[in-house]
């Protein structure tokens, strides 16, 4: 189940782009220019609390709005951005943009939504990560308490001593920390206790067949129980059906994300969605 974020994705990129002769070098140049030209956008996917049926937050997911090719998904460019180091300026742009968006939404009168931001392993390994993150919060005026940084198990398990230092520094800023794609990596469970983590996100590969695969259901249920007894928030990713929702409710997993509740969408569509769900509540 470990995700393949390998070199193959560069090759996959070619047919999907409908371009036959784009070399890795061209792709790298295109990414660099895309950053300079402001071709990246964030889409937002709702995070729902099943008890209140409210949108309690959103995950920011980066897309590349390429002028010729159209919208390119992160699987197509994050691996190369990571390899080339372009993920560092891209990652800073993502956080800054999410901060600007959060402030814009507050000005519009939207309720305070927690925004989740994905971090890459290269970003996470920067010596001065917490200073860089703090600088973005102070430059944009956003409040760290409105943000969750999503990390993966493989990232935090790489060098647990330095991980602990980084996690503590980030927590001191006031952001929440989440372990994304939980269950697909190799975390030593004892670190869940040592690391100042706030949330686990159960990987969607366990949720997909939860209604017909008892092993997947057992794993999901065990992750929920463990999270709750450690005092962590727990979120199920990739929820697509009502059956999945009902099983998750039975497991006491109350926070969900998935196509059943909404796909990732551009900022304006997301704001409309939040506003109409608030209007719906008033009408009830
Ligand atoms: P992730 O953080 O695990 O994000 C969840 C992915 O699952 C998103 O794909 C989302 O669109 C998709 N998804 C959500 N609900 C469902 C569902 O019900 N069914 C299915 N099949 N999929 C669902 P997306 O946006 O293509 O992002 C893929 C991955 O790219 C993310 O996985 C994350 O690892 C990475 N990524 C996205 N944005 C960023 C970013 O700003 N920085 C970094 N470093 N990585 C990012
Ligand atoms: Mg994520
Ligand atoms: Mg995930
Ligand atoms: Mg993922």
TrEMBL record:
Record domain EAL: where? 24-278
Q: What is this protein called?
A: EAL domain-containing protein
Give the species this sequence originates from: Undibacterium parvum
